[in-house]
Amino acid sequence: MAGTRRIPLRKCVGCGEMKPKKELIRVLRTEENEIVLDTTGKKNGRGAYICNSKDCFAKAVKSKGLERSFKQAIPAKVYERLEKEMSEIEAR
After folding, report:
1. 59 near 15, Cβ under 8 Å?
2. d(Cα 20, Cα 44) in Å, to the nearest integer?
3. What's the pTM value of the predicted model, to 2 decimals?
4. Which of 43, 46, 89 is CA-nearest to residue 67?
5. How far, in Å, CA of 7 to CA of 21, rounded?
6. Three-point CA angle 79, 85, 90, nearest 5°
7. Which of 21, 31, 70, 92 is the most buried (most CB within 10 A)?
8. pLDDT value of residue 2
9. How confident is the prediction for the chain on average, in pLDDT?
10. What is the 3-state secondary structure (H, E, C) of 39-77?
11. pLDDT surpassing 70 at residue 26
């Protein structure tokens, strides 16, 4: 009896929707408290997930979703860098 394989779901910190993990981008806080995008989804650190859209990113910034997930304040420079990296990934 081979059952169907369960797809891992994660919640977007922008829109709050539950989506398959592979459709989302992982934002990571490393041990050095650096905030980076993890496109592989395998790096060590605390992760939060966000949809690959500028709308969800804007919602996450406005609602401070990433700050809540990481339990720390995030400087504006980091948000700008993340937005630039996300637009590069979106362009692919």
Report:
1. yes
2. 20
3. 0.86
4. 46
5. 8
6. 120
7. 70
8. 65
9. 89
10. CCCCCCCEEEEEECCHHHHHHHHHHCHHHHHHCCCCCHH
11. yes
